[in-house]
From TrEMBL:
It comes from Koleobacter methoxysyntrophicus. Transmembrane segments: none annotated. Gene3D superfamilies: Histidine kinase-like ATPase, C-terminal domain (3.30.565.10). Residues 298-412 form the Histidine kinase/HSP90-like ATPase domain. This is Sensor histidine kinase YpdA. Keywords: Kinase, Transferase. Signal peptide: none annotated.
Amino acid sequence: MLQHSLLRLIEQDRLRKLIESFTRATDITIDINDCLGYPVVYHECFYGFCKKVRSTKKGLKKCIESNADIGFKTKERRKAFIGPCFAGIALMGVPIVVDKAFHGSIVCGQFHLKPPTEKMISKMLSAMDEIGLNGHEMIEDFKNIKVIPKEKCKAVSELIEFIANYIAEIIYKNKIENELIRQKLRVMETNQTRVELEKALWISELKKLQSQIKPHFLFNTLNIISRLIIMNENHKALDTVYALSNIMRSSFEESDELISLEKEMDYVKNYLSIQKMRFGERLRFKIEIDDRLRGISIPALTIQPLVENACTHGIEPKEDLGEIIIQSQLAGNDVIIKIIDNGIGIPEEKLKEIHMYLTNDKDFYVASELDGSLGLKNVHRRLQLYFGSEYGLSITSRTGCTQVSVKLPYNS
């Protein structure tokens, strides 16, 4: 039953795109399994040795059983687990947990922890004989499987933990039926119950907004890693994976959606280091944060999506040097954080549309046709949910200069 629930809650195309992006970036393939161990989406990302194994009915069954076994191990331990598949290839899994309940697992494979030994090859030959394949014809494919030492597995595990976290947020978001809560609000007789339901609705909307930002950031970064690999910039690709891991490690350690401005700027610095891998000398950035403001509270992933917009829509189309400046200032009881870029600017008509889009109170979960506007609205709406309607974003732009200002309370 949970398998059908996951299939219903998460669009298959979105999961398939996520798996394809992960495989392109790392040469490692993942399966997303339900709590019974069955894959919730089928894909064609396996290649080489594993593809040949899965081409047979018995091989596919054994592969799914191996993935399921690793998934159950993550359920027992409530953390990442590494173990062999039936053919001796390394598998690594992480659990998908929501409200302390195990909803499934993500298992990645197609890698060795060390170059294959004669003992490993002997085990593989026995396994191939069991499923009716000629193992001797597959020895070269077995040897060509990517080798990732255990010390390097941490970066990979953090990537799949990020994906598991994203899926868990989608499940959580859909557990709270907004329309049902709104209907109950209309008929509730006690103020206490109404307050509790309004709080549940508020939390639900925040979770929806948060779940929109994270996969968008992940997809974009995986695409950067893929491009670097295609251009044979493998060292830069590895540095990018480490920078992404630093971002995700920090996000996992946070139990609250509100974090300090200093921690948010750590996200931004790691993100900009990723963009430097992409743009090289075409991008410069400067961060000027008032020391008095480093401890103030801000919703996680507030500044990073705005910097991402500046890179994508301002700097990328620009042929010469691009620069991003992040400044903060205290204005009475408010804090203003400015993200300024010297990109191509926003055309006047489009800027008017963005202003209308930000101030539109209608449900905006159906994506806008405006590039980047969903991220702007997302940040704007979360600031208003946390701090009130007088806070949020304001935008000015002309050719060669776009400024997005974030307004939030000083005593937050």
